[in-house]
Design brief:
By secondary structure, the protein is α/β, with parallel strands linked by helices. It has one domain: HUPs (Rossmann fold). It has five helices and eight strands. The strands form two sheets. A six-stranded mixed beta sheet has the order 1-6-3-2-7-8, sandwiched between helices. α3 crosses α5. The radius of gyration is 16 Å and the shape is globular.
Length: 172
Amino acid sequence: MTESSNSPTPPTWPSPGPDTIIVVGVDVDQRPDVVLEAAGVAARMGAGLVCAWVDSTQVVYGASLDGTRLITPLDPDLATGSSEVLKEQVHRQIADALAGVNVPWRLEQTVGDIASGLTEVAQQWDALMIAIGGRRPGFSGWMNEVIGGSIAGHLVHTQHRAVLVIPGTKDR
């Protein structure tokens, strides 16, 4: 089960939610065009957009008797509350990017491995597809992919749903 954003649900999310859902992976300091492209696809399909932020600085290490997931930071020196600060930053970035875009959206949060977290959110919402940004340009993006592997590649090989990879660079 994902950790739902403590931020208020945006006023654009109807009740009940849209029938068709697209999950888009979001991150701190992500290019806004990733969310905008996913929102464009969602608008053309009449779908809602679930923005999924996977906090990879934390992991699930078990569950309590009531099923509540037990979560701990990977780095014990990580400041308490830093995840909440990052979540609020992600929420603000999405809200800014989607201001004026007529697509219902919401932010969901989970922890752990990014590909697994996106899969978890997509399953929870029975999403039609998962949209993610391509690797970041430059040497650091290449190194991240070499060390951690391609999230897009992992999703493509493990999903029964469509995976949309939004290019890493965009000429505008």
